[in-house]
Amino acid sequence: MPRRHGGTAARRRGGTAARSRGRRHAASAPVVVTTLKDMDACAALAESISLLAGRGHSNRRFLKEIGRIGGVRRGPFWVTDAASGGSNPLKGRGFRAAFDDDTDGQARHFAGTVAVTVRIGGGLSRWLTAHVLRDAPDTADGRLSAAAIEFVRLVRSDELAQSDAADWVRRTLCGAGPLDA
Questions:
Q1: Cα 2 from Cα 24, distance rounded (Å)
Q2: Are 71 and 88 in contact (CB under 8 A)?
Q3: What confidence tens digit (pLDDT) does each residue in 137-147 have?
Q4: What is the DSSP string of 111-176?
């Protein structure tokens, strides 16, 4: 009997198996609410976190997924992404003056610091931000790094539920408010 085309090898090249892999990949894509230039990146960050919270991940996975918003992949290559500064899909402003360094990269900075801290812990993250990145504690970047480290601590200890994480970002990091006074 002649061999039919469309067996296992054909499915791997583009048939059913490839399509199912595509669906699985699409479902694990990072949640990023895209922004336009000069848009409120802090609000977009909070909205992305809100969407992630609805996925039901463990706290550790939830925090790693937030890191993907800043371009830090899951898996073994996270360290190269973090070392290179990740990527910046949420360009824009919207952060309180205490956290605003007059660049469009603060959402990436927060998400990247979350990604690193969930993997190496708060103490080493604090040391790296101060000594390697040279973000002094009294600068906007230093305060934002400290806020990201605290955010990770709160989520990992269950003091901050995933469902409340976006509101924490809005209250603590976004817009003008009491911290700007």
A1: 34
A2: yes
A3: 999 999 999 99
A4: HHHHHHHHHH-HHHHHHHHHHTS---TTSHHHHHHHHHHHHHHHHHTTSS-HHHHHHHHHHHTBSS
